[in-house]
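This protein record is not my work; I was only asked to verify it. Would you go through it and say whether the fold makes sense for this chain? Here is the record exactly as it was handed to me.
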Amino acid sequence: MSATDTKEAILNAASSIIIQRGINHFTLEEVARAAGVSKGGLLYHFPSKNELIKEMLAKLLAEAEGGVAPTEHELNNPYTRERWLLEYIKTSYTATSVDRELTTGLLAAIATNKELIGPIRDYFSKRQQELDQCEDPVLATIIKLASDGMRFAKILDIDVLSDEAKGKVALRLKQLLKESSKNID
């Protein structure tokens, strides 16, 4: 197995342990066992648990960035900026594997070292700066917060809304956006 493959196996094992068994089982020994490497092999690639978490977060944020982040063109064009928000609403009640892994990385970071939360805070800060470019930044923020709330409820398995209720919330958010924007047909 190449060094890149080994690192990837370790990162995947770490996420799987957190998702399937919980944060209490997230130890270097368990990660090494699940990845099929020795603890020394794991430490060669990740000298500490904090380094492993940092790399998990970097990987997950890069994946999330590709899936949700507006492109430069979308940011500079009011029409596509609003379309991006409509797309964000559509994805709000489906928790993707990236969302799930990002949340597990967040939980791991907070549980082990609150200083590791910085990259996640930076990610959300960047998203907010993008929303601040919208025609109505307050409404854009409301839409994001409501959408994130539905997404995180699904991820954390505390989702109490029926599919019909979620659909109505999403529809109302879309209506609010269309009512406030001259750029949406």
The CA atoms of residues 39 and 101 lie 23 Å apart.
